[in-house]
Amino acid sequence: MAGPAFETVSKPGYGPEIGRKGLAEMARACRVPLLAIGGINTLRVAEVLAAGCAGVAVMGGVMRAADPGSETGALVVTLQGSAAASRVRGK
Asked: Model-level pTM?
């Protein structure tokens, strides 16, 4: 688990965001699948997966959403789309 991946209001004071470059460095060095947490939303999923993370963990973005069910569904669709794109690219 790597976080905060990006700036997040859920965990103020947990340190600066790791960012895409930091996630990529951690994913390359990690011997187990790496999950990103912190500041994750549907716009960040593809970026996190492209950095080499195996997946994401999301809490605050879903809990603060006006419709948590829709937000969760959008995250799942985005993850599935990103995974399919990675398979096409041969990753």
From this structure: 0.83
**Number of structural domains the chain divides into:** 1
Mean pLDDT of the chain: 89
Residue 82 falls inside a structural domain:
yes
Residue 50 exposed, middle or buried by CB count within 10 Å (0-12, 13-18, 19+): middle
Is the confidence at residue 90, as pLDDT, over 90? no
Q: What is the CATH number of the domain that holds 24?
A: 3.20.20.70
Distances 60 to 27, 35, 65, 71, 85 between C-alpha atoms, Å: 23, 16, 8, 11, 26
- Domain carrying residue 57: 19-89
